[in-house]
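Thread: Newbie trying to understand structure tokens

Hi all, I'm a second-year student working on a class project, and my supervisor (Dr. K.) asked me to get a predicted structure for one chain before our next meeting. I've only ever worked with sequences, so writing a 3D structure as a token string is new to me. If someone could post the tokens and maybe explain what I'm looking at, I'd be very grateful. Here's the chain:
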Amino acid sequence: MALGFWGVCFSDFVLISSQLGTGVAFAAFIAEALASAIDTMDGGMEVVADSSTTTRHWVMLAIFPLLGVLTSLRSTASLEPLAAFGNIVFLVSFVIVMVFGFGTAEVSLEGTSAATGIAGLASFFGLSLFAFSAQSECMSVEQFLPKNVQQRYGRVLDVSLMITVGIYILFGVMGYIFFKDSTSDNIFSNLKCGPGEYLPCKTFSLKLSVWLNVVVQLGMAVMIVVNYPFSMFGACQNVEEIIWGCTDGGTPMLNYFAQAKMAVLRVFWVAMTLVVAAVVPDFGFLVGFVGCFCQTLFAFVLPPLFHLSLSWTKLKTERLYANMALHIAVLIFGVIFSVVSTTQLIVQKIDGNN
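---
Reply by user tm_fold:
Sure, no problem. This is what the structure looks like when written as tokens:
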């Protein structure tokens, strides 16, 4: 309660919008990946870069019950084995992209260009913040761990994030070297070669590249489906606490699911994420928007705001003016960057649609 009632409202807004926004981006990715794989198989195993709107909408209807059930679970503890399987799927997909790139593309910086201007910077930082903001999954996992494990969770998390950063940097750099300016928002869509494609078929035949594309798209869709409840759990619990004053208690359904009223609300939020993903199916834009708007506030606004609010008197008494100035500077940067980058992304999206 450091910032009073309005501070709590602002914090809740940032948390809920960030995690629901992540759910929207995940829903868009799942629909696009599955629809692309389905259209590819229906089209005689010819890779489809952009799936049809009709197929995406049918996919969303098909996955709605599954996402609703997974999100209605009382806790995410039962999903941990599936989450581990999802991580294995991601690593296998990562290896496939690397092998495909080395076997097909020319490993060179020639033909690449840097994103410039405010719009390019906004996209970069938005994507980076989205990629490295693991707060939703971490909170969902940590609260169900035994107390003795929670005490060591910080160190485990630090090591895990260091490994993740290394993988992301390697994946991003090598992916762009392989596919140059043809790199897709969903890099797994670049697993294609042959006539009319950016890469000629060398080590991999056209047929094999198509099968790799389908298998990886399906695998990544399954991985995101498993991770979707983790991204939604914090937002759902926050809303439930605001409405009912608690996130648990009462009579659970079948011992595994939240109370009926909470399960209905969670299914509603799942439906909303799918509706927004259907209206705005651009995964790259959604990731950038959530990163620039929501997670910039998380990373650069709320931490210094809380610190200054809680420690202002102490900092002033001890004359730690440099510390105060630094936190104020980070706070101002976060606000300005969030407003400017989000505006640029929206303008860029509108100009692209026109």
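A couple of things are worth pointing out once you decode it. The chain has ten helices and no strands. The longest helix spans residues 4-42. Feel free to ask follow-ups in this thread.
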